[in-house]
Design goal:
This protein is mainly alpha-helical and about 110 residues long. The chain has six helices and no strands. Helix content is about 45%, strand content about 0%.
Amino acid sequence: MEKFISCCGLNCASCDARIATIANDDELRKATAEKWKLEYNAPGITPEMINCTGCREPGVKFSHCEACEIRNCVIDKGFDTCGDCQDLETCTIVSAIHKFVPEALTNLRNLN
Protein backbone atom coordinates (compact mmCIF):
# COMPACT_ATOMS: atom_id res chain seq x y z
CA MET A 1 0.00 0.00 0.00
CA GLU A 2 1.18 3.51 -0.81
CA LYS A 3 2.26 5.62 2.14
CA PHE A 4 1.84 9.36 2.26
CA ILE A 5 2.82 10.35 5.78
CA SER A 6 1.21 13.35 7.46
CA CYS A 7 2.86 15.69 9.96
CA CYS A 8 1.77 13.47 12.88
CA GLY A 9 2.56 10.19 11.14
CA LEU A 10 -0.89 9.16 9.94
CA ASN A 11 -0.98 7.77 6.41
CA CYS A 12 -2.89 10.29 4.27
CA ALA A 13 -2.90 7.77 1.41
CA SER A 14 -5.46 5.71 3.33
CA CYS A 15 -7.63 8.69 4.39
CA ASP A 16 -11.07 8.63 2.81
CA ALA A 17 -11.17 12.44 2.58
CA ARG A 18 -7.98 12.50 0.52
CA ILE A 19 -9.08 9.54 -1.60
CA ALA A 20 -12.44 11.20 -2.31
CA THR A 21 -10.73 14.49 -3.17
CA ILE A 22 -8.16 12.98 -5.52
CA ALA A 23 -10.80 10.80 -7.24
CA ASN A 24 -13.48 13.52 -7.09
CA ASP A 25 -15.78 10.84 -5.67
CA ASP A 26 -18.99 12.36 -4.29
CA GLU A 27 -20.33 8.98 -3.12
CA LEU A 28 -17.22 8.45 -1.00
CA ARG A 29 -17.60 12.00 0.35
CA LYS A 30 -21.16 11.19 1.44
CA ALA A 31 -20.16 7.88 3.00
CA THR A 32 -17.19 9.45 4.79
CA ALA A 33 -19.29 12.30 6.18
CA GLU A 34 -21.80 9.81 7.59
CA LYS A 35 -19.06 7.62 9.05
CA TRP A 36 -17.17 10.53 10.63
CA LYS A 37 -20.38 12.02 12.10
CA LEU A 38 -20.73 8.88 14.18
CA GLU A 39 -17.06 8.05 14.71
CA TYR A 40 -16.09 11.52 15.90
CA ASN A 41 -19.45 12.59 17.36
CA ALA A 42 -19.49 15.45 14.87
CA PRO A 43 -23.05 15.84 13.51
CA GLY A 44 -22.11 18.97 11.56
CA ILE A 45 -19.87 17.19 9.05
CA THR A 46 -21.29 17.37 5.53
CA PRO A 47 -20.16 15.74 2.28
CA GLU A 48 -19.10 19.17 1.03
CA MET A 49 -16.57 19.33 3.87
CA ILE A 50 -14.87 16.11 2.78
CA ASN A 51 -12.05 17.61 0.74
CA CYS A 52 -8.35 17.33 1.54
CA THR A 53 -5.17 16.86 -0.47
CA GLY A 54 -3.16 15.85 2.61
CA CYS A 55 -1.69 18.01 5.31
CA ARG A 56 1.76 18.26 3.71
CA GLU A 57 0.55 18.95 0.18
CA PRO A 58 -0.64 22.19 -1.35
CA GLY A 59 -4.36 22.45 -1.89
CA VAL A 60 -7.56 22.14 0.05
CA LYS A 61 -7.57 20.82 3.62
CA PHE A 62 -10.31 19.24 5.71
CA SER A 63 -11.29 21.81 8.34
CA HIS A 64 -9.59 19.90 11.16
CA CYS A 65 -6.40 19.47 9.13
CA GLU A 66 -6.25 23.18 8.32
CA ALA A 67 -6.40 24.11 12.01
CA CYS A 68 -4.50 21.09 13.37
CA GLU A 69 -2.26 22.03 16.30
CA ILE A 70 0.22 19.32 15.30
CA ARG A 71 0.45 20.53 11.70
CA ASN A 72 0.81 24.14 12.82
CA CYS A 73 3.61 23.19 15.23
CA VAL A 74 5.48 21.35 12.46
CA ILE A 75 5.11 24.34 10.13
CA ASP A 76 6.15 26.83 12.84
CA LYS A 77 9.32 24.81 13.55
CA GLY A 78 10.13 24.48 9.83
CA PHE A 79 9.95 20.67 9.91
CA ASP A 80 8.45 18.27 7.37
CA THR A 81 6.91 16.02 10.06
CA CYS A 82 7.05 15.46 13.80
CA GLY A 83 9.72 12.88 12.98
CA ASP A 84 12.16 15.77 12.52
CA CYS A 85 11.64 16.96 16.10
CA GLN A 86 13.90 15.83 18.94
CA ASP A 87 10.84 15.84 21.25
CA LEU A 88 8.90 13.26 19.20
CA GLU A 89 8.88 10.60 21.93
CA THR A 90 7.84 12.98 24.73
CA CYS A 91 5.67 15.54 22.90
CA THR A 92 2.29 16.09 24.53
CA ILE A 93 0.85 17.63 21.36
CA VAL A 94 1.17 14.53 19.17
CA SER A 95 1.03 11.84 21.89
CA ALA A 96 -2.76 11.42 21.70
CA ILE A 97 -2.51 10.41 18.04
CA HIS A 98 0.26 7.94 18.79
CA LYS A 99 -1.67 6.50 21.74
CA PHE A 100 -4.66 5.64 19.54
CA VAL A 101 -2.76 4.95 16.30
CA PRO A 102 0.66 3.53 17.22
CA GLU A 103 1.38 2.97 13.53
CA ALA A 104 1.66 6.76 13.16
CA LEU A 105 4.68 6.83 15.48
CA THR A 106 6.20 3.88 13.62
CA ASN A 107 5.68 5.71 10.32
CA LEU A 108 7.56 8.74 11.65
CA ARG A 109 10.41 6.63 12.99
CA ASN A 110 10.72 4.92 9.61
CA LEU A 111 11.02 8.21 7.68
CA ASN A 112 14.57 8.80 8.88
